[in-house]
Design goal:
heterotrimer; A alpha/beta (259); B mainly alpha (266); C mainly alpha (271); A: 259 residues; alpha/beta; 6-stranded mixed β-sheet; 4-stranded antiparallel β-sheet; 35% helix; globular; C: 271 residues; mainly alpha; 11 helices; 75% helix
């Protein structure tokens, strides 16, 4: 059974924009998939449909066999964690509290309203923080950390959920090359050690090539490539990054040559 | 080349946009004049009044502090009334504001209803509410506290809701994506993000409530307002002066304290 | 391995942060101490609930339609008081704002005196000033307008002063460099920069003053306030309902208008 089953998913925004046009894909458990494509291709929208942040206007999404709908959002979101480009941490709260928000969907929630957590939850958070190497920053306020550190907190929050799937929406777009490398390596390591399915949105071809098992190329709301990094030929790249009205000259190839 | 030739070769300027200002100014002045006429405000009375004002205010010049201890006691009751009113408002606003914030409200119906309730609470003047509560509860400071609480709950709720709506969407999504439900999203993405603002608003409302509490006594809702009403009616300027000074001093102290506190927070 | 979970807070000590606990305890202490003063009695409240519901029921009687013309006249008077009082206040507070601004005032003493004066004017609620002015000029809308204007000057004066103080120096220098006189510098360089925030603040003031004007009648200073209190005292619920409704409608209308205007300004006015 696929970890995520995407069936003819379309998304049309109220302003008429068709962000997704009939996407089909099966994400296997324990795989590391990179969704590659230019801005506006629909990568973000696709990922956001997968955890219900956007509702699809057509087709369906199945997480572990269960169809995503209004009723089971909380339950399914508990097993599908998300890492964001802008980190999306609560600035005022400490790193630990941010990581603990990953435990909010688990078991009874009344205590959490008073910021009370069980020892087990604290332990999960502690382990997650240790995993991303931020134990010494545990009690700092989230906004006092650097970009790379904040993203690691984001990943710790995702880990705290003990998820089956981690979705990462352009996790390194706001980071410098070194931090980007660290984050991608961390995500890969999480997949290798814990067997968590990872789906990452990227626009950096180089990172995609080096970290992915499988690359899904998107352009204009459609899947235009689905294969291994080895199969990602310059031809394929051109298809992915082709924009309407672009002249068929060398400029695109040149740009992609160093990507 | 002479001027004529220069003028003819120059591209014509675009038409000057019509300046609406004179129209606005004229309309405003006319409206104001109509109002003065309708209210039958006699400038003579005003001028005489202002001329007399100097003499009138001098009557307050010798404040009579003989009853000071009673005044201070009344002021204390007034302050306590304001405190309770503010706390009540805070409680109500705490629960209603997230429902009245578009980005947190669990469904559009709850949002609309919460908004309307808050608007209603705001629209009713505290005085009217105080009158109603006095009728229901009898005289004393409690109806005053309730009236203040209900009225300012509307304000506080609206301020909080507007602050909550300004919380960064990404932060809300970050918490929502973990599977948090409505109360959890409010407690983790909502309140922590607006804490500073929320405290500022609360202090502002407390300040405002102290002022209003001092007047609600006029309808029997306890406090110093009633005393002032009585002394003025008896034309006892000495005591009135003293009362006004007590009220003034208290309000100024609260003002400074709340400004200081808000400075500490900001 | 314990089977019972221990709950704790996400802090190093496991306890909630000290300032939070301290603040909460202080507040609870203050409330507990003042409860008897405010005569807080939950039993009494619950009992009163029944009475309030009964009262609400009594309110919904056939309205006294004959009262409508007077109601409209009084509401109009209330609105007029608000507008006039606010307008006068704006005019008066402009020069006072200049005097109370650190960078525009002619003399530090003038600055201090004006600032304190403005503080005083806003300190007391409108109703108190109305009481005083009724005592001075008699009953009617005049003392009401004066009271509203007085407090508004206190507020707007401070607003202008603060807006002038954060004015861009370069613009001021530019005008000065062209040889502008003392008054001209203030009129043409400082004031125009302070004006954009102005409209939003005026809407807020109008909103506040309308609510204040609605109750000034209580002390005879014009507006619907007198009728409001009287209908309550005389148990004329058929009028009270109309009055409450009228106040609610007018206040809400102004509220929506001011919201719309404010969002128009924030999101770009028409050129």
């Amino acid at each position: 059974m696929s970890a995520i089953s995407i069936q003819s998913v379309s998304k049309r925004f109220p302003n008429g924009c068709e962000a997704l046009m009939g996407i089909n894909a099966e994400i296997q458990p324990g795989s590391f998939t990179v969704v590659l494509g230019p801005s506006g291709a629909g990568k973000s929208t696709l990922l956001r449909v997968l955890n219900g942040l956007e509702a699809s206007t057509g087709g369906s999404v199945r997480i572990g066999g269960e169809t995503l709908g209004k009723g089971n959002l909380r339950k399914l979101r508990a097993s599908v964690a998300m890492v964001f480009q802008q980190f999306n941490l609560v600035d005022r709260l400490s790193v630990v509290t941010n990581v603990l928000t990953g435990r909010l969907a688990h078991r009874s929630w009344v205590g959490s309203l008073f910021y009370l957590f069980r020892t087990e939850d604290m332990e999960v958070a502690r382990q997650a923080l240790a995993r991303v190497g931020l134990t010494d920053k545990a009690w700092s306020r989230a906004d006092k950390l650097s970009g790379g550190q904040q993203q690691r907190v984001g990943i710790a929050r995702a880990l705290a959920q003990r998820p089956k799937v981690i979705l990462a929406d352009e996790p390194v777009a706001s980071l410098d090359p070194v931090a980007s490398e660290e984050i991608m390596a961390l995500l890969r390591e999480i997949r290798d050690r814990d067997g968590i399915t990872v789906v990452v949105n990227l626009h950096q071809v180089d990172l995609a090539r080096r970290f992915a098992d499988r690359i899904i190329g998107m352009n204009g709301g459609r899947v235009v490539f689905d294969g291994t990094p080895a199969e990602l030929s310059p031809q394929a790249l051109r298809t992915i990054y082709q924009r309407e009205g672009m002249e068929h000259d060398n400029s695109l190839d040149l740009a992609l040559a160093y990507a | 080349m002479n001027i004529e030739q220069l003028k003819s070769t120059r591209p014509p300027l675009p038409p000057k946009p019509r300046n609406p200002m004179p129209v606005w100014v004229a309309t405003t002045l006319v409206t104001l004049w109509l109002i003065v006429w309708d209210l039958d405000i006699s400038f003579e009375a005003l001028v005489y009044g202002v001329a007399d004002m100097g003499e009138y205010f001098s009557r307050y010049g010798q404040p009579d502090f003989s009853d000071l201890s009673r005044y201070l006691e009344l002021m204390g009751i007034t302050l306590a009334t304001a405190l309770w009113g503010t706390v009540f408002a805070l409680l109500v606003a705490f629960f209603l504001a997230p429902l009245a914030a578009r980005n947190f409200a669990p469904n559009p119906v709850a949002y609309r209803v919460a908004r309307e309730i808050l608007n209603f609470m705001r629209a009713m003047p505290d005085l009217l509410l105080a009158l109603i509560f006095v009728a229901a509860l009898g005289l004393g400071p409690l109806p005053g506290a309730l009236a203040l609480g209900v009225h300012t709950a509307g304000f506080l709720g609206k301020f909080f809701a507007e602050s909550l709506e300004r919380v960064d969407q990404g932060v809300c999504e970050g918490v929502a994506a973990t599977g948090a439900n409505f109360p959890q999203r409010v407690m983790y993405a909502g309140w922590p993000s607006i804490l500073r603002e929320a405290l500022g608003y609360t202090l502002y409302i407390l300040d405002r409530n102290v002022r209003m509490a001092s007047v609600l006594g006029l309808v029997g809702a306890g406090g110093i307002g009633l005393a002032l009403h009585d002394t003025l009616r008896l034309f006892d300027y000495g005591q009135s002066g003293a009362l006004i000074l007590v009220i003034l001093a208290t309000i100024l102290i609260i003002d400074y304290a709340s400004a200081w506190l808000r400075g500490r927070l900001g | 391995m314990t089977t019972v979970s221990i709950w704790r807070w996400p802090t190093p000590s496991g306890l909630p942060p000290l300032p939070l606990v301290g603040g909460a305890l202080a507040l609870l202490g203050a409330l507990w101490l003042t409860a008897p003063v405010v005569e807080v009695d939950f039993v009494r409240l619950l009992g009163a609930l029944g009475r309030m519901v009964a009262f609400a029921g009594q309110m919904f009687v056939t309205p006294d339609w004959h009262y409508v013309p007077q109601l409209l006249a009084k509401m109009l008077e209330t609105i007029e008081m608000t507008v006039l009082g606010t307008a006068i206040a704006i005019v008066v507070s402009l020069p006072l704002g200049l005097l109370a601004a650190g960078n525009a005032t002619p003399h530090p003493l003038v600055y201090r005196i004006t600032r304190d004066l403005l503080s005083l004017m806003r300190a007391l609620p409108e109703l108190v000033w109305a009481l005083v002015f009724v005592s001075a000029v008699g009953l009617g809308p005049l003392p009401g307008v004066m009271a509203l204007a007085f407090v508004t000057v206190g507020f707007m004066g401070k607003f202008f002063a603060e807006a002038i103080e954060v004015v861009d120096h370069k613009a001021v220098e530019g005008v000065r460099a062209h040889g502008a006189g003392w008054l001209q510098v203030r009129l043409f360089a400082m004031l125009p920069q302070a004006l954009p925030d102005f409209v939003g603040t005026v809407m807020y003031i109008l909103d506040h003053n309308l609510r204040a004007a609605a109750i000034l009648g209580l002390v005879g200073a014009g507006g619907i306030g007198y009728d409001l209190v009287m209908s309550m005292r005389l148990f004329q619920y058929d009028r009270l309902l109309l009055i409450a409704l009228a106040i609610y409608l007018v206040v809400t209308l102004l509220d929506r208008l001011s919201d719309r205007l404010r969002s128009r300004i924030i999101h770009g006015a028409r050129a």
